[in-house]
Amino acid sequence: MAQRPMLIVTVILCTAYIVSAQCPGICDCSSYNSRKEIRCGTRDLTSIPSNLPSDTQILRLEFNRIESISSTDLSRMVNLKRLTLYNNMISFIDTNAFAYQQDLEILNLKYNRIRFIHSQTFRNMQKLVELSLDNNLLQSFGNDTFNGLVKLNELEIDGNPLQSLPEGIFNGLTNLRLLDISNVVFEVIPSNLFDGLTSLETLKMNNVTQNGDHLFSSEFIFASVPTLITLEVRRNSLHCLPGSLAVLRALKFLQLSMNPLTCSNFTVLKHLQRLEELHMEDSGITTLSSNMFVGNTNLVFLLIEYSSLSTVEEGACVHRTQSTRRSVPLFQQHYYFARPRI
Fold it and tell me: Ribosomal protein among the record's keywords (predicted)?
């Protein structure tokens, strides 16, 4: 009986050694709620370590110098749920790089040097919820690049030198709620670009054109996404509010900053009766007319900082304070903040 405690201690020590051996010395490993996480970020790695535990569910490799992802780099890691590779130097991704990541939910590849993604690269990722490809060097996508990503909620492809997007690229993304295509240079937006995005709530289209009045003139551009709650169209050389906004009856947040907005016709706002927050800072707007916000009974925040605003007509606001920054109740419950250009 005297040997029994010694045997127990030996088993415990051996078990601890096995767990430790599975964690590469250059990384930190932990387990929380039965999810094994490997943190190898900011380690000056030039490639994905080959000795990572196969049961890893969260793998963090951000802020390294990794240049490529081969077909074998992740082939053993079939349990991955989250993979972060942002801020690396990745320029090549093999078509089969993610062939075994069928349970992956979050993939972050932002801020790399990716120039091309094969249309079959994401083919087995039916459980993917978030995909970040922003701020790379991508110049084009195939129209079937995102096929099969039926659970995708968030897609970010902004900050790439893309020259438009192909028709049908978002087909089948019926669960997508956030789409960021900012900085994609459009001459013409395909009339059916957003077809099928029946759940879309947030659309970011900042800096997509130098001729916004023409690009957004089509009355059908937002017709297929009437569920939008948030729309961002910063820096698009918009002189007038496009009539195409009128179909967005569910819209609550509208970002129009850094546009000229020199037209005096803002009648389209009356169709946005659920609008709660409106941003028009750094614009050329000069006047808040007495009937500008007729119908916008839910508007609670209006920002016009660093604009050319010089006139607030009687009836547009109830009260004004200070000449440089004003907090003004509109319809006795709304507020705007205005700081003029110096």
Answer: no
